[in-house]
Amino acid sequence: MRTATIQRATNETQIELTFAVDGEGKAELDTGVPFLTHMLDLFTKHGHFDLFVKAKGDTHIDDHHTTEDIGICLGQAIRQALGDKKGIRRYGNAFVPMDDALAQVVIDVSNRPHLEFRGEFPSQKVGTFDVELVHEFLWKLALEARMNVHVIVHYGRNTHHMIEAVFKALARALDEATMIDPRVKSVPSTKGML
């Protein structure tokens, strides 16, 4: 079973997170950040993962530290759950429409962290959630999972729809990249390791 549990405690947040690559789309989420909870719920469902998050943070200030630290923990859990990465497809690509919005996410589980983010959102907030935290979450996720993640929001008018398309595309691309391919006998790299 490809799964990992991460615990993180700082003066700003306390987080316990368990992630299973080969799940059933089950989510138990208590993030303290309602919009992030919504995004992680659909990420879990559309990636066929299992995700448990219990987080307490200084959300009386804003959602930044909690969102960032959940991204850190999820990235660490993905990296740990994948282990030596033997047999995985390595690359994933997904386009997802959400009403007026179209997003694409391309992933390389390469052990080389990078986030390339192309997208302009019409609003700075969705409810109380600062839209700039989408980039913050994805950057920390890519960094800690040591993945190459390219996000392209091709278009959209509704910020909620645009972000939702990103998280669904992230789920589908990660699902594809982490699938076991029976043709891959070791790791999918000429280097002999990822």
UniProtKB/TrEMBL annotation:
Reactions this protein catalyses: D-erythro-1-(imidazol-4-yl)glycerol 3-phosphate = 3-(imidazol-4-yl)-2-oxopropyl phosphate + H2O
UniProt family annotation: Belongs to the imidazoleglycerol-phosphate dehydratase family.
InterPro entries: IGPD_sf (IPR038494), ImidazoleglycerolP_deHydtase (IPR000807), ImidazoleglycerP_deHydtase_CS (IPR020565), Ribosomal_Su5_D2-typ_SF (IPR020568)
GO cellular component, one term: cytoplasm
Location in the cell: Cytoplasm
Official protein name in the record: Imidazoleglycerol-phosphate dehydratase
Pfam families per record: IGPD (PF00475)
Pathway membership: Amino-acid biosynthesis; L-histidine biosynthesis; L-histidine from 5-phospho-alpha-D-ribose 1-diphosphate: step 6/9
Single Gene Ontology MF annotation: imidazoleglycerol-phosphate dehydratase activity
Keyword line: Amino-acid biosynthesis, Cytoplasm, Histidine biosynthesis, Lyase
PROSITE patterns (alphabetical): IGP_DEHYDRATASE_1, IGP_DEHYDRATASE_2
BP term (GO), one: L-histidine biosynthetic process
Main location: cytoplasm
Enzyme class: lyase
HAMAP family cross-referenced by the UniProt entry: HisB
EC number: 4.2.1.19
Gene3D superfamilies linked: Imidazole glycerol phosphate dehydratase, domain 1
Organism: Anoxybacillus mongoliensis
